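pinned: reference chain
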Amino acid sequence: MDVIVVGCGHRFSAYESSFVSAGLRIAAICEPVASRRVAVARRYGLPEDRVLADHHALACLGECAFDSRAVLILTPDSLHLSCLESLVPLGYHVLCEKPLVTRPQDIDTLSELLRKKRGIFGCCHVLRYSPLNKAVREVLQSGRLGQLLGIDHCEPVGHAHFAHSYVRGNWARQADAAFVLLTKACHDVDLIHCFVVDAARGRGTARLTAGGDQPDVHCTRVASFGKLSHFTRRNKPLAAGDASACPDCPVQQSCPYSARRIYNTRDGFRSAAVDAAGEIESCYQRCVYECDNDVCDDQVCLMDYDSGVHVTLSMRSTTLGECVRRTRIYGSEGELSIEVPMPIDVTQLSPEAKSVAVLHDHVTGHSEVLSVAEVAGSHGGGDLGLLASFRMACTAAADHGVQEAETMYMGHHDEIVESHRLVFALEQARVARCIIEL
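pinned: its structure tokens
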């Protein structure tokens, strides 16, 4: 299936290796950075008329430009809503990177925009598309756990990852990006919401929405606690003295956040921090205790659903595991645990590490390991699963209609809006230090 890619930066690079396996072919690109635009166009042999500067140029071409109805929006977060407002009304099938909006006041605008859409819509909440999480969702939909009572979920960001992205990098300041729960863990909130809705669907106990096709399950109140706890000047080692950058620091050999330690051993971070001459860029050599970061580095969230489910979500920054989430799901008749084994050598850790889900049946006393085929790619195969699901939804829309195809392969867009609302409510609760009623 031909797709038009809007934005050819970091997220494009992350998905690029999955395009062919997902059955996608790039028909055109929109990219404002000239050097990047030329490089991608050359790599895919795109003629000049299929290489545009931005999404506005694409919108000017009207519906079905370049004979493609599908668009992937992979721009910086702050541009997502502008892209959606330009392209969704034209009837394109759209897959947009998360988060869809970065301000709470834009949620209603997003909801109204999607209500009027004519094409398939999906958000890059990749966690829900991994083979393991699909298997977990099938268990929840089957009702095997009985009544769902609680979920405990932990997102260990990884100490090197957090230092790179949220202390030294592009997502370190809320004014430049957004708060960290939105930029890092909004797909964790989305996955949890999916689990709760799936369990209600499996039990058949929930009300249905006005359309009659979705369980009408809502989170009724939230609370959250978190702050910038560690990566501040007051926690700088005394022996570091006045050093503001790693090359000048007398303790860089013993510091876990040393630029040399991170960028000389981790290829994934090295490619983003090292220039053409092979030198680490100055912004990534800054002392993590002397940066201008202001996003919180530790956060705990509580969610109370009207279906009786209580949820805890924790985001930890200084962890060994890197984005290797741990989840416990508690039902009246069983329990599900989801783990990703961690190697002793953290430099060998990758998002492709095998995940394990164990289902324990309280009635029989037996435990069953969910069998999931290993899939290459990031997020446990979630990146590939996302792109493949989008292609299948777009293909199925011709025979089954947009709403049925979207619900079948991508999930209902109302769930996406709801999970975004939850993220903003959780941040409001953290900042205001109170319980937010929804």
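why pinned: The longest strand covers residues 148-156. The chain has a mean pLDDT of 90.
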